[in-house]
Design goal:
This protein is an alpha/beta fold and 239 residues long. Helices cover 34% and strands 18% of the residues.
Length: 239
């Protein structure tokens, strides 16, 4: 097996990715497939931090449509990410993979409070660290949380796992002529409004020189391919 290109990564997984073909909730067949991919990646000797969204359960930005104010909705969304984090922890540990869930909002009976130095120590000991509750603040997305945690733990790259195989100039699901980008700069992503991640997350990765690799999680073996440096997905780096 070839050596991995990266020693420490931050993997960002959307909540919607966990719902599979369902309209919401957690599809455990999908989750178990993802856990197999992550467990295989760990055997390569890679230190893995993981940020998961909560959109399969509740998305705070949509709450205002139902009468829930934005801060309250965002806190509800943060709690949804913790549910997903605990589910990921459970299926990984069934595979014998040591994990820790750390949350930006303290809830000590179910997870450790996030402390940067402790998170780094867990990674050094070979544990997968799952970061829940976003940044702990309303008005910030889990994309921003992923960029923040990647910066804090010294990740060499941020992997964004999606349902498509990279970044396109239009929605490839509805537009068959959409063009895929093999590589982009941070400035191009922002100027073209490509919505790879939100602007705050892109800026944070740019300022800390953290490349972003966007790839298709649904393709088996994609995480291992990305770790070996294969030319998959879309890489965002450089000014």
């Amino acid at each position: 097996m070839s050596s991995p290109k990266y020693k420490r990564i931050l993997l960002k997984l959307s909540g919607e990715a966990l719902q599979g073909s369902a309209s919401g909730g957690i599809d455990f067949a999908t989750l178990n497939g993802f856990a197999d991919e992550v467990a295989d990646a760990r055997t390569m000797g890679v230190e893995i931090g993981l940020v998961v969204g909560g959109g399969n359960i509740y998305r705070g930005a949509n709450g205002t449509d139902t009468g829930v104010d934005r801060p309250t909705g965002d806190y509800m969304g943060m709690l949804a990410t913790v549910i997903n984090a605990l589910a990921i922890q459970a299926v990984l540990e069934r595979r014998g993979v040591p994990t820790r869930v750390m949350t930006a909002i303290e809830m000590r009976p179910v997870a450790e409070p996030y402390i940067r130095r402790r998170a780094v120590r867990h990674l050094e000991k070979g544990r997968i660290v799952i970061f829940g509750a976003g940044t702990g603040n309303p008005f910030f997305t889990t994309d921003s949380a992923a960029a923040l945690r990647a910066s804090e733990i010294g990740a060499q790259v941020l992997f964004k796992a999606t349902k498509v195989d990279g970044v396109y100039d239009a929605d490839p699901v509805t537009n068959p002529t959409a063009k895929k980008f093999g590589a982009l700069t941070y400035s191009e992503v922002l100027s073209k409004n490509l919505r790879v991640m939100d602007a705050a997350a892109i800026a944070l990765c740019r300022d800390n020189n953290i490349p972003i690799l966007v790839f298709n999680l649904r393709k088996p073996g994609s995480i291992a391919e990305a770790l070996r440096g294969a030319a998959i997905g879309t890489i965002v780096e450089g000014n």
